[in-house]
Design a protein that fits this description.
The protein contains nine helices and no strands. The protein is mostly helical.
Length: 187
């Protein structure tokens, strides 16, 4: 899209004041309808900063370092969001999102959707078999913790019946026999 001229902006604003909506303004000014809708949304919210800005909206990628530089300047200065929109040429919601992501995650842009080779932490994706293996390991760790707990209880218990129960539970082979022992002892 070519740069929007001052004449187009004036015509755009006059048509907006007349009550025309996106499609007619787009046809009259030659500005794409989707861009007109974005600007009208800002106008309806009371943000007329687009009229003073000298940028054209670009859907091209911007480097993370450039985003961090912009966010750094925004953090250090006390300019309003409208002034920032005019100065940097990005919509307010984009600048706000970059700032929020930078403050929360240390990066301005986070990848969307599912990653292909790993999760968001950079770990390898886990298949069903690997997940089952990890779940089994987790259960084994839990059983080990319970065995240790039951051994400690057995050592400190003075009642012989409870002591035998704790010893049986501490020596259980797996989760099924452990749960069976618990059920038998509760009868």
């Amino acid at each position: 899209m070519p740069k929007i001229t001052e004449e187009q902006k004036k015509e755009f604003y006059n048509l907006y004041k007349q009550g025309l909506r996106a499609l007619l303004i787009s046809r009259e000014t030659g500005i794409s309808c989707s861009y007109v809708k974005r600007v009208l949304h800002d106008f309806d919210a009371g943000d007329y900063s687009w009229l003073e800005s000298d940028f054209r909206h670009q859907n091209k990628a911007i480097a993370e370092s450039e985003k961090k530089r912009i966010i750094g300047e925004l953090s250090e200065s006390s300019i309003s969001w409208g002034e920032a929109v005019s100065k940097y040429g990005f919509p307010e919601n984009t600048l706000r999102m970059w700032k929020r992501n930078y403050n929360e995650y240390g990066v301005c842009s986070r990848k969307r959707g599912r990653s292909r080779k790993g999760d968001s932490d950079g770990n390898e994706r886990v298949g069903k078999d690997q997940a089952a293996g990890k779940e089994k390991e987790s259960l084994q760790e839990g059983i080990t913790i319970y065995r240790t707990y039951f051994r400690i209880c057995a050592e400190s218990e003075t009642d012989p019946q409870k002591k035998r129960l704790y010893e049986r539970l501490a020596n259980a082979e797996d989760l099924e026999s452990l749960s069976e022992d618990v059920l038998k002892s509760s009868d």
